[in-house]
């Protein structure tokens, strides 16, 4: 079986700044990968290339063995979902309507969202703790609520592969863990693949199998979290000395 | 997603409003025709004043409805394309281009067909210039498109002002009426009605994709919309539809801005409902406004654009004030 997503010889740059050269990896069903790096290293740019939203300088990305060009946008949307970093709502819209947009790739041109689609959306809204807010206008939501709604939209889309750009942005600690648990459950129960841009190496270690370190000078390192995430390497990645502490068998990295 | 019952109710109300606007347009005027006679005239019975209803008022009412519908449709599409609820069909310079063409034709003393022809050419020229300049290297963002359109519109405005200032006295009135938007010189309405039907029929199948485009290009693309193709199509349709409206009635203001906005307040931003509702409401509004325009200071006729602006400005300010709360 082909990998959920596979990158080969990927070269990405943004504004003349090299993010990666010749990056290659494959993600199998049920696997979780964290992307770590400093601000401006190009994590989001890399993720949007993986999501097929911007072209790579070289190399290719394949979903289940097929390129984005071969799949077309609709089939691609049935295979991968993308969580954007920013949510601009130019027009008023209800929470339920917004979550229902996740059903788009599953509906034909003339289909109207069915009761079942609404049920899927309501379940997703409840899963992120927004139950009871279905009729609220998205323009009145707080940053954290809007972020959770974006995650609910992604759950409504229910693709086999999630590409998450800073899924924890704006979230309180309790919601951070709840969201990571949601995607961990999706990986475990539905064999979904997850690639997420994170800022907290301890959470990456706890919730991901592998990590991709983006240094921002074109160097990238990929490996199992257990081996790759060390205080020395992360200190170099973030340009600040770090100390590793262990608590209840979990590793955390705190700024020295 | 508005409930189906509410959607049907709103559309039914708007159909009634459209019918009422036609009844008013056909019955009211320098010579009042009773409604029974209006119906008789439409059914081809030899009633009194049948010719006035059928040959004078009906074509003008149809042209008004078509132009109002075209402008509202174009406005709704432009607002999605630019992701800006304050965009209108003229923001990208289409009416400016048409204005330059029309002023030039009037200056040269062309007849109505020549004025319409040059206005349409001017609108198309503006459409291609804005597209070419904004598209540039392929990354035509909303901001770049908007800025290019505004600049081209400003340039067209300067050319129009130049022609107005060198125009002989006796041509000025015609030029001003054209610029303000006027249905009294409009010919057969069938072309505008056909374009309205075609534009609507082509847009409606993409309505759910438009909903996603309104939420952002990357979001739409990630949910399975071919954003590049859709934006080309929306730009093309909105521009052509605007060009036809402006060619047949001059640049009538505010319909394209206020109608989609009002409809959005009433039924939300689902384009599957918003597009048909905006077409009906725009058509009805312009038909009513034109009836007023030719009766308020009868026997003199006002350019209908003056009335839509007089109605539109306070409505729009009210909406803005409400929005801020």
Your description of this structure?
The complex is a heterodimer of chains A (256) and B (325). Chain A has one domain (5-90, 159-255): P-loop containing nucleotide triphosphate hydrolases (Rossmann fold), CATH 3.40.50. In chain A, 36% of the residues lie in helices and 27% in strands. Chain A contains 9 helices and 12 strands. In chain A, the strands form 3 sheets. Chain A has a 6-stranded mixed β-sheet, with helices on both faces. A 4-stranded antiparallel β-sheet of chain A has the order 2-1-4-5. Chain A has a two-stranded antiparallel ribbon with strand order 11-12. The N and C termini of chain A lie far apart (45 Å). The mean pLDDT of chain A is 95. Chain B is mainly alpha-helical and 325 residues long. Chain B has a single domain (4-320), classed as ABC transporter involved in vitamin B12 uptake, BtuC (Orthogonal Bundle), CATH 1.10.3470.10. Chain B starts with a helix and ends with a helix. The relative contact order of chain B is 0.17.
Give descriptors for this structure.
heterodimer, A: 256 residues, alpha/beta, Rossmann fold, 6-stranded mixed sheet, 9 helices, B: mainly alpha, ABC transporter involved in vitamin B12 uptake, BtuC, 14 helices
Query: Which CATH C-level class of chain B is it?
Result: Mainly Alpha
Q: What is the CATH first-level class name of chain A? A: Alpha Beta
Judging from the principal axes of the Cα atoms, what is the shape of chain B? globular
Percent of residues in helices of chain A: 25-40%
The mean pLDDT of chain B is 90
- From the coordinates shown, what is the CATH architecture of chain B? Orthogonal Bundle
Supply the CATH superfamily name of chain A. P-loop containing nucleotide triphosphate hydrolases
The CATH fourth-level homologous superfamily of chain B: ABC transporter involved in vitamin B12 uptake, BtuC
The appropriate CATH architecture of chain A is: 3-Layer(aba) Sandwich
Q: Which percent range fits the helix content of chain B? A: over 70%
The Rg value of chain A, from CA coordinates, equals 18 Å
CATH topology of chain A: Rossmann fold
Q: Which word captures the global form of chain A?
A: globular
**Biggest beta sheet summary of chain B:** none
């Amino acid at each position: 079986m082909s990998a959920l997503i596979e990158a080969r010889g990927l070269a990405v740059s943004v504004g003349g700044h090299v993010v990666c050269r010749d990056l290659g990896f494959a993600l199998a069903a049920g696997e979780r990968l964290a992307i770590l790096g400093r601000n401006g290293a190009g994590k989001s740019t890399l993720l949007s290339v993986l999501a097929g939203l911007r072209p790579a300088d070289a190399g290719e990305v394949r979903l289940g063995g097929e390129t984005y060009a071969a799949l077309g946008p609709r089939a691609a949307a049935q295979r991968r979902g993308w969580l954007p970093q920013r949510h601009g709502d130019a027009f008023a819209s209800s929470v339920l309507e917004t979550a229902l947009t996740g059903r788009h790739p599953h509906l034909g041109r003339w289909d109207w969202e069915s009761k079942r689609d609404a049920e899927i959306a309501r379940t997703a809204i409840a899963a992120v703790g927004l139950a009871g807010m279905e009729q609220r206008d998205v323009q009145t939501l707080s940053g954290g609520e809007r972020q959770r709604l974006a995650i609910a939209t992604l759950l409504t889309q229910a693709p086999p592969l999630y590409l998450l750009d800073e899924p924890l942005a704006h979230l309180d600690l309790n919601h951070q863990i709840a969201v990571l648990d949601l995607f961990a459950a999706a990986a475990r129960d539905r064999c979904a693949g997850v690639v997420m841009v994170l800022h907290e190496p301890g959470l990456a270690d706890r919730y991901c199998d592998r990590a991709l370190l983006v240094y921002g000078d074109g160097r990238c390192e990929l490996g199992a979290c257990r081996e790759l995430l060390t205080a020395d390497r992360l200190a170099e990645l973030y340009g600040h000395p770090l100390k590793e502490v262990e608590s209840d068998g979990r590793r955390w990295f705190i700024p020295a | 997603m508005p409930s189906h019952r509410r959607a049907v109710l709103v559309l039914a109300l708007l159909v009634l409003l459209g019918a009422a606007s036609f009844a008013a347009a056909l019955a009211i005027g320098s010579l009042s025709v009773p409604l029974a006679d209006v119906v008789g005239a439409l059914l081809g019975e030899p009633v009194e004043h049948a010719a006035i209803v059928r040959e004078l008022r009906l074509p003008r009412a149809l042209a008004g409805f078509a132009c109002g519908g075209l402008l509202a449709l174009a406005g709704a599409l432009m607002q999605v394309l630019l992701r800006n609820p304050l965009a209108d069909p003229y923001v990208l310079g289409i009416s400016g281009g048409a204005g330059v063409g029309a002023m030039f034709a009037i200056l040269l003393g062309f007849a109505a067909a020549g004025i319409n022809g040059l206005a349409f050419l001017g609108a198309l020229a503006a459409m291609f210039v804005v597209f070419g300049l904004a598209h540039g290297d392929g990354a035509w963002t909303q901001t770049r498109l908007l800025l290019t359109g505004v600049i081209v519109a400003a340039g067209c405005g300067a050319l129009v002002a130049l022609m107005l200032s060198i125009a002989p006295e006796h041509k000025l009135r015609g030029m001003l009426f054209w610029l303000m938007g006027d249905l009294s010189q409009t010919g057969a309405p069938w072309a505008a009605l056909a374009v309205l039907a075609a534009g609507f029929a082509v847009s409606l199948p993409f309505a759910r994709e438009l909903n996603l485009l309104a939420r952002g290009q990357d979001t739409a693309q990630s949910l399975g919309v071919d954003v590049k193709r859709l934006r080309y199509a929306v730009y093309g349709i909105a521009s052509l539809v605007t060009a036809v409206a402006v060619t047949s009635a001059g640049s009538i203001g505010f319909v394209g801005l206020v109608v989609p906005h009002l409809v959005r307040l009433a039924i939300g931003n689902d384009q599957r409902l918003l597009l048909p509702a905006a077409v009906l409401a725009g058509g009805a509004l312009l038909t009513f406004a034109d009836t007023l325009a030719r009766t308020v200071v009868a026997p003199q006729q006002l350019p209908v654009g003056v009335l839509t602006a007089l109605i539109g400005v306070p409505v729009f300010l009210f909406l803005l004030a409400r929005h801020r709360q």
